[in-house]
Prior knowledge:
Blueprint: H1 7-16, E1 29-30, H2 33-42, E2 50-54, H3 60-68, E3 71-76, H4 82-88, E4 95-99, H5 107-115, E5 122-127, H6 133-142, E6 147-155, H7 156-163, H8 173-181, E7 182-190, E8 195-196, E9 203-210, H9 221-233, H10 239-245, H11 254-263, H12 277-291
Parallel strand pairs: 2-3, 2-5, 3-4, 5-6
Antiparallel strand pairs: 1-8, 6-9, 7-9
Helix pairs in contact: 2-3, 6-8, 9-10, 9-12, 10-11
The structure holds S-adenosylmethionine.
Protein name: Ribosomal RNA small subunit methyltransferase A
Domain Ribosomal RNA adenine methylase transferase N-terminal: 35-212
Enzyme class: transferase
Amino acid sequence: MGELISPARLRAVLGKHHLSLRKKLGQNFLVDGNIVRKIVAAGNLTPEDVVVEIGPGAGMLTAAVAAAAGRVVAVELDRALLPVLAETLAGYDNVLVVQGDALEVDFDRLVEEAVGAPVREYKVMANLPYYITTPLIMRLLRGGFHITEMVLMVQLEVAARMAARPGTGDYGALSVAVQYYGRPEVLFRVPRTVFFPAPGVDSAVVRLIRRGKPAVTVEDEDLFFTLVRGAFGQRRKTLANALAGAKVMPGWTRAAWEELIRAAGIDPRCRGETLGMQEFASLARAVSIRKNGGQPDLFT
Ligand SMILES: C[S@@+](CC[C@H](N)C(=O)[O-])C[C@H]1O[C@@H](n2cnc3c(N)ncnc32)[C@H](O)[C@@H]1O
C-alpha cells in the first residue's frame, strides 16, 4: 500500500483503469504518507474499532485505517472507482466497500451488515468531498446514527467554523450544531500540496467527539435549529430583524420578536452571532411557550 501514496503511483493505478479524477465529486486524493499516518493516529484506533470511511477514493486512507481498526465500511459514490478499490484493498479482508451516496445511506445498517450484528458505537474517518461538507456533517450529527467520534479532513475555513466561539467572524449555524452535539478540536493544518490534484485551498483535520447528551437541553430540536439558521441568515441585522426577515414564524412581526426575545432574557438589538448555545436554547423555549399560547412573562 505504501507505494500507492505518491502522485506517480496514483496516476499509474488510475491510468491502468482508464480513469481521470472528477473535480465535481471533490476528488482530491491524498498522496502523502505522513498526513495519512497522522489522520489514522488521530482516530486512536484499536482492533475493537468499527470505522465508516466516507469517500475512500483510491483507498489510500482506507488501507491505513484497515490496518489499525477491526472493521471498515467505506462508502464511495463514484462507481468507476470500485475496480481501483478492489485492487488497492485486495490485501485487507476487514473492509467492505459500498457504492452509495453518503447523503442518503443508512450508516447504522451498513455497519450492521459488515459486522453481522447491531453495533452500539462506531467512528467516522474521512477526507470529505468538499462540495457537500456542511450537509454531510449535519447529517452525521443529526441523522440519529451510533457515531461516537469523527476524524474529518475539511477545508481550513470549515474547520475554523466548526470550532468557533460566539462573537467571532467564523461563528455560525455550523458552529452551534457541531458544538451542540459534540466537542470539536482542530488538530492540524494540511497544505494543499499533499493532494493530487492540489485543490485551491488548504485543509485541516478536526476531531469531533460526540457528547453523551447535547450541550444544552432543548425540547424541540427542529425549532432550535430553525432559530439558529434564522439568526445567522442575515448576519448584519439585529436578532429581531433577522428572525422576522427570515420568516421563522409565519406572521410574527419584528415587534413581536423583540418582545419575545426580551422575555427570553436577551437584548433584541444584539446580533445572532453574539448568542451562545444557552441563549439559543432559552429563545427556543420562549418560542415554544408562545406557540402553545403561553405568555411572555411565563418564561422570564
Ligand atoms: C477528497 S476525496 C478523498 C479520497 C480519499 N479518501 C483520499 O483521502 O485520498 C473525496 C471522495 O469522496 C467521494 N464522494 C464524493 N461525493 C460523495 C458522496 N456523496 N458519497 C460518498 N462518496 C462521495 C469522491 O468520489 C472521492 O473519492
